[in-house]
Write a structure and sequence with these properties.
Blueprint lengths: L1 H30 L6 H6 L9 E6 L5 E4 L14 H8 L6 E3 L12 E8 L5 E9 L1 H4 L13 E6 L4 E4 L12 H4 L8 E5 L10 E7 L5 E8 H35 L4 H20 L4 E9 L5 E9 L1 H6 L4 H4 L4 H4 L3 H16 L1 E7 L10 E9 L2 E8 L1 H14 L10 H18 L2 E9 L2 H8 L1 H18 L5 E6 L2 E9 L2 H16 L2 E2 L5 E2 L3 E8 L6 H17 L5 E3 L2 H23 L2 E10 L5 E12 L3 E3 L5 H7 L2 H21 L7 E5 L1 H5 L3 H12 L6 E6 L7 H14 L2 E7 L6 H6 L4 E4 L1 H4 L6 H16 L3 E4 L5 H9 L4 E2 L8 E2 L3 H7 L6 H7 L1
Parallel strand pairs: 21-22, 24-26, 26-27, 27-28, 28-29, 29-30, 30-31
Antiparallel strand pairs: 1-2, 1-5, 3-4, 4-5, 6-7, 6-10, 8-9, 9-10, 11-12, 11-15, 13-14, 14-15, 16-18, 16-21, 17-18, 19-20, 23-24, 23-31, 23-32, 24-25
Helix pairs in contact: 1-12, 6-7, 14-15, 15-16, 17-18, 20-22, 22-23
The protein binds ligand C2E and calcium ion (2 copies).
Length: 842
């Protein structure tokens, strides 16, 4: 049973590897729009050189396109094959495992693992096939535990044999193994099968075990004869031990009379001998040996004589029992490793007992990876049992792997990193080369999580993990620290350029849109901080801390950048953290006021609206302009609270003016992308307006183009909700982003505020004017109105009038003013400077 278990685990790992290959290729296929040369990839050493695994990509018509092993071997047309049709008709991305079919495989009986490829819009675009030879699937680490007549192999869920090791075949009259030994709920199934079921007519004990996560089962068939043989051998060795055992017992009793204190210990020894015998008979799969010490004249042990062993014991050493009995230690062992083993035996002769596990040296005659050994001395003889524990070790390692693996992305986790880093640094130290630690943080991930929910967030993280893994060099590692933080470790760094190249690849791959299950492409970027061993620290902790600091600096430079650590960054980070702390406090204490800046009609100068612009009344620094804290509020998410504060203040102010009986114009409120993508901005406005009894016609919202770059669904929903409230929307800073006019028109946005950078250009020659003219004429055709921001001079105003710009705002009309100064402007109503007509006349 444990064998079947170990084999099923191994199969799982093998198939998962293949699965991974198909996933990677699918990802690359989509990413490159179908430009994939497997020949190149193979030449790059991305696949095993042997022909055990072959990869081919088949186009949507069933024609092979590219293959790792030459097109000549490929089946010319697969379109009629069942699995091809299944992929074609079923958009689900599942892996199909297809039994070998002789008509498909000219040379060998290969098992094909296939996965559907899609175009960017999810259309069927062919399939990728990884085909594996039976040997590949039936390779089994613990094969040494199997005897000559034993079989092992793998079947699919229907019991159809996919691959079997050896020449013996199972006869199931073409009906598959399910007919003889059906699986029941993934429980291991055992059955004794008569000889007629096997092509060599030998009866066997068959164990079937499901492979986790994949629809296949592992099958082990142990030959009955061989099992019996081991039993007989074990019984023989029992006789020998029994004799030795009883002699020992007498000896122990005698000594015991003299050294009563040591009696207990001696008894235990005798017990051990008996137990050793029992193990030898009970579990015939253990190797069992009796070796006698050979002494020189000074009673120094110089060799050991193998007096007896069981057949299993001999086979562990690659010998027969008859051949092994009578051999000397120095005949069996040789080399450096032999001396160690010899001394170990001598030591046990001194202490009397040893039990433990060890990793088998490659020079040892013992076949196996991990062995459990137990040695008991009895007089001049050592009774030794050896048990192959490679499978339980593999299990332990699998558990260790679990503890070291991030469940979501399957990448190594933080725990792994802390264990791995010291070794990597040690290696770097010895090789005299550098090592680099890249701290990768996704820039707008929180947005995705907040607006699309955690399932989408998880999906994005998985995709990001896959991309990261696909751009690092073989031998380098990537781990997920948690959240949206990843770490890449690069070893054998010759120069910083090596590191830059990896960082650039990461920035690039993360900046491409992520296509999630919601059907939309989402843009997040990655910021990377880099620390180098040894110059930025010589222990894991320091390097991680410095890479983290560098990452913050990279983010501060804008999204999607990388930055090497520099000592002065630490200081600026401290400054930054202090400032963030101060801003947080200021929001809690509400140290903010709104200034208002009029917006007027281009021709008459009549007041149309006033933009609310926030200022921080800092107890020490005085009035702090928004550009000093809004970007930080955006980065840290504090903008959400601050924005709420602004909305409530503006509504309260309107209510106050309304109560004073002033002729009101709307207040235009700035909303940042982070706030907008939070998804509840319309609700916030609705509640504030209701609280202060403000009509929707008195409120306007300014959003930038980048607000509309978020999740398409959320954006449209938000815009529609704002529209339903009856609030007018303006696109702020137009011209600095990437959106096109037609896009904005589709979203039903009716006013553009052209950024002041363009206004500044209108009087600087033809180009500036041309830009404005182009926008204006197109906007007017699309039925949108246009506001020019930052109008500072009469000349600018004249040009804008000539171009029929609808409204203007800027210092020429009025600077932003404290709320207290606004009533006077509302009263005045027409706000062009009094000098205007004079100037015009002059
Ligand atoms: P904005 O929305 O583009 O606001 C216009 C900025 O241009 C204001 O700067 C204003 O003082 C300035 N300005 C107006 N006319 C002229 C002019 O003729 N010449 C020049 N050179 N500048 C002019 P301010 O008040 O410093 O605001 C800067 C930015 O801070 C705003 O740019 C806006 O993006 C942001 N902001 C201000 N208040 C808020 C707020 O409550 N919430 C959010 N999310 N952002 C705000
Ligand atoms: Ca604005
Ligand atoms: Ca603006």
């Amino acid at each position: 049973m444990s064998l079947a278990h170990a084999y099923s685990d191994e199969l799982f790992r093998t198939i998962r590897q293949i699965d991974q290959i198909t996933l990677n290729l699918k990802y690359y296929w989509q990413k490159t729009g179908g430009k994939l040369e497997l020949e190149d990839q193979r030449n790059f050493g991305l696949y095993p050189a042997s022909s055990m695994l072959q990869v081919v990509i088949v186009d949507r018509n069933g024609m092979p396109l590219t293959s790792t092993h030459g097109m000549a071997n490929e089946d010319p047309a697969l379109s009629g094959k069942d699995f091809f049709r299944r992929h074609k008709n079923d958009p689900s991305p599942q892996l199909l495992i297809n039994p070998p079919s002789p008509e498909l495989d000219i040379d060998r009986m290969r098992v094909r693992f296939s996965r559907r490829l899609d175009t960017a819009d999810g259309e069927f675009d062919g399939i990728v096939i990884v085909s594996a030879t039976p040997d590949y699937l039936a390779s089994f680490h613990d094969e040494s535990l199997l005897n000559g007549g034993d079989l092992h192999g793998v079947t699919d869920a229907n019991g159809t044999v996919l691959a079997f090791k050896g020449d013996v075949k199972i006869n199931s009259n073409g009906r598959g193994l399910n007919h003889i030994l059906p699986m029941v709920e993934n429980e291991p199934q055992v059955l004794s099968l008569a000889g007629m079921h096997f092509s060599d007519q030998r009866s066997r004990m068959v164990v079937r075990q499901a492979v986790p996560q994949y629809p296949v089962t592992a099958v082990i068939a142990l030959s009955d004869e061989e099992m019996f043989q081991s039993y007989h051998q074990a019984r023989d060795s029992y006789r020998n031990i029994a004799v030795i055992g009883s002699i020992c017992l007498i000896a122990f009793t005698l000594t015991g009379m003299i050294f009563s204190l040591r009696l207990a210990w001696r008894n235990q020894q005798a017990d051990e001998v008996r137990r050793a015998y029992r193990m030898a008979t009970d579990e015939a799969r253990e190797g069992f040996y009796m070796v006698r010490a050979i002494y020189d004249r000074d009673r120094k042990i110089v060799d050991f004589l193998l007096e007896d062993c069981n057949e299993r014991g001999a086979s562990i050493a690659g010998l027969t029992r008859a051949g092994m009995i009578g051999m000397r230690f120095w005949q069996l062992f040789s080399g450096e490793h032999a001396k160690e083993t010899f001394e170990f035996f001598v030591e046990v002769m001194r202490t009397g007992f040893y039990e433990g596990e060890y990793l088998v040296s490659p020079n040892s005659p013992v076949h196996g990876t991990w062995m459990h050994r137990k040695l008991v001395r009895s007089g001049d003889t050592l009774a030794i049992t050896l048990r192959d524990v490679s499978d339980t070790k593999a299990h332990e390692q699998a558990l260790a792997k679990l503890a070291n693996t991030d469940v979501l992305t399957n990448l190594p986790n933080r725990h792994w990193l802390t264990e791995f880093l010291p070794g990597a640094l040690e290696r770097a130290k010895h090789s005299g080369k550098k090592a680099a630690l890249l701290f990768v943080d996704l820039d707008d991930f929180k947005n995705i999580n907040d607006t699309l929910g955690h399932a989408s967030g998880d999906e994005l993280l998985q995709a990001a993990a896959l991309r990261l893994r696909s751009v690092i060099r073989p031998g380098d590692n990537v781990a997920r620290l948690g959240g949206d933080e990843f770490t890449v470790i690069i070893e054998q760094v010759e120069s910083n350029d090596d590191v830059c190249r990896v960082a650039e690849r990461i920035v690039k791959t993360l900046s491409e849109p992520f296509h999630l299950a919601d059907g939309n492409g989402h843009i997040v970027h990655g910021s990377i901080g880099i620390s180098l061993y040894p110059e930025d620290g010589d222990d894991a902790r320091t390097l991680l801390k410095h890479a983290d600091i560098a990452m913050y600096a990279a983010k501060a430079n804008g999204k999607g950048h990388y930055q090497f650590f520099q000592p002065q960054l630490s200081e600026s980070l401290v400054v930054r953290l202090n400032r963030e702390h101060a801003l947080r406090g200021a929001i809690e204490r509400d140290e903010f006021v709104l200034f208002y800046q009029p917006r007027v009609d281009t021709f008459s100068g009549e007041l149309r609206s006033m933009e609310a612009l926030v200022r921080w009344m800092h107890p020490e620094r005085g009035l702090v302009p928004p550009l000093d804290f809004i970007p930080m509020a955006e980065d840290t998410g504090l903008i959400v609270k601050l924005g709420e504060l602004v909305i409530r203040k503006a509504c309260a102010q309107l209510a106050q003016w309304k109560a004073a009986g002033l002729a009101l114009v709307p207040v235009s409120i700035n909303v940042s992308p982070r706030q907008f993508n939070q998804g509840n901005i319309s609700a916030l406005f609705a509640s504030s307006m209701a609280e202060h009894g403000i009509d929707a016609t008195l409120v306007e919202i300014e959003i930038t183009e980048s607000c509309m770059m978020g999740d398409g669904h959320v954006v449209t929903e938000q815009l529609a909700a704002i529209d339903r409230l009856g609030i007018r929307l303006l696109v702020d800073d137009f011209g600095t982003g990437y959106s096109s006019l037609s896009q904005l028109q589709q979203l039903d946005l009716d006013t553009l505020k052209i950024d002041k950078a363009f206004t500044a250009q209108v009087c600087n020659g033809k180009e500036g004017e041309a830009f404005f003219m182009a926008i204006l004429s197109m906007a007017h055709v699309l039925g949108m109105s246009v506001v020019a921001e930052g109008v500072e001079t009469e000349e600018q105003l004249q040009v804008l009038q000539a171009l029929s710009c609808n409204e203007v705002q800027g210092y020429y009309v009025s600077k932003p003013v404290p709320a207290a100064e606004m009533p006077a402007l509302m009263e005045k109503r027409f706000l062009f400077p009094a000098t205007r007509n004079l100037l015009k006349a002059g």
